[in-house]
Structures are given as structure tokens and as C-alpha cells.
Design goal:
The structure is a single chain. This protein has about 170 residues and is an alpha+beta fold. It has a single domain, classed as Nuclear Transport Factor 2, Chain: A. Helices cover about 30% and strands about 35% of the residues. It contains 5 helices and 7 strands. Strands 1, 2, 3, 4, 5, 6 and 7 form a 7-stranded mixed sheet that branches. A hairpin with a 4-residue loop joins strand 5 and strand 6. Helix 3 packs across helix 4. The longest helix is centred in the first third of the chain and has 15 residues. The termini are far apart.
């Protein structure tokens, strides 16, 4: 297998995160492959077109906490699976202006290179490996379908009755 610079896919992922932090769903969509999949603890969405990606991210952004200002990421790792397939993994947390955590999460993205451009084929959002049991902000819990999915999976121990423990949620996935 020829040597390929390993930072290309990670750089493409970082451009995607910049578009997300700008809350620009149309720009986010440009970083996706057609078709793509978006996976959360509660659902798997098929995104056959860039328009479907844009609609999905517009909904996510509409459901975000009003005081969201940025996403902080822990170390991101890239694993090259082939010359044209890479996996980017890591964790992040949505933050407000007071630097408070709004929502921590883990993520695994699969990117595929076509025509010298890396695009997201699978975006998987999951529990963070460093989750400490902190509650989500009151303004975020229960807002919209996407928020409900993450809240049900991540707001464990201190969460509402009937929410499964993180260990149970992870074991069933």
C-alpha cells in the first residue's frame, strides 16, 4: 500500500467541525458523502443526499441549547483502514460562554476519499469514554428528538426515573 499522509482525513474532519461550530448546516453537508449514515444511541438515519444531511443538521442545530458557543474536543485519533478509508475517533463537549459543559459525547466517524476529497460516510455519536455522570444543563434536557436521544443515553445515575444506566445502554448496543 503506498504511503499516504495520515493527517488528510483528520484535517477534513476538523473543517467539518468548524462548519458545525458556525452552525451552518449547508456547509456541514458539504463534508458528507452521498449516501451517508448518522448514528445516535437511539436511531440510525440514512442520509441519501446532501439535502438530507442539511435538513438533519438544521434540526440538530435548532435543538441545541440557546447558550451553545463552541465544542471542545479531547484528543482525536485517526486510524487509516486503507488508502481511501479512515476512522476518526474522540470525544467532545458542547460548551456555553461561561465554559460550562452542556453535553459531553463520544464520536466515531468513517471518512472515505473520492477524487482526492475526504468525506464523512458514517457519523456515530455515542457515550463519551470519559463520562463522569454530570447532568446536562436544564435548558437542554428534553429539547427535540436529538436531545432526547442523547439525554436518555447520557443523563444516567442523576437522570430521571426509567433512564437506563450507562452500562446497560452500552451493553445493549
Amino acid at each position: 500500500m503506498p504511503q499516504v499522509e495520515t493527517s488528510d482525513a483528520l484535517a477534513a474532519f476538523q473543517r467539518y467541525t468548524q462548519a458545525f461550530q458556525a452552525l451552518d448546516a449547508a456547509s456541514v453537508a458539504q463534508h458528507f458523502h452521498e449516501p451517508a449514515f448518522f448514528i445516535t444511541p437511539g436511531e440510525v438515519l440514512s442520509l441519501p443526499t446532501l439535502e438530507a444531511v442539511e435538513r438533519t443538521y438544521a434540526r440538530i442545530m435548532a435543538d441545541m441549547p440557546r447558550d451553545y458557543v463552541r465544542t471542545d474536543f479531547g484528543p482525536l485519533s485517526e486510524r487509516r483502514l486503507s488508502d481511501d478509508l479512515a476512522m476518526v475517533r474522540g470525544s467532545g463537549v458542547w460548551k456555553n460562554a461561561a465554559n460550562e459543559d452542556l453535553m459531553p459525547f463520544g464520536m466515531t466517524y468513517m471518512l472515505r476519499r473520492t477524487d482526492q476529497t475526504w468525506r464523512i460516510v458514517v457519523a456515530a455519536i455515542h457515550a463519551s469514554g470519559t463520562w463522569t455522570g454530570r447532568r446536562l444543563s436544564a435548558g437542554f434536557a428534553g429539547r427535540g428528538n436529538f436531545a432526547k436521544v442523547w439525554t436518555a443515553d447520557l443523563n444516567w445515575r442523576a437522570g430521571p426515573p426509567g433512564v437506563p444506566a450507562l452500562e446497560t445502554a452500552c451493553a445493549s448496543s
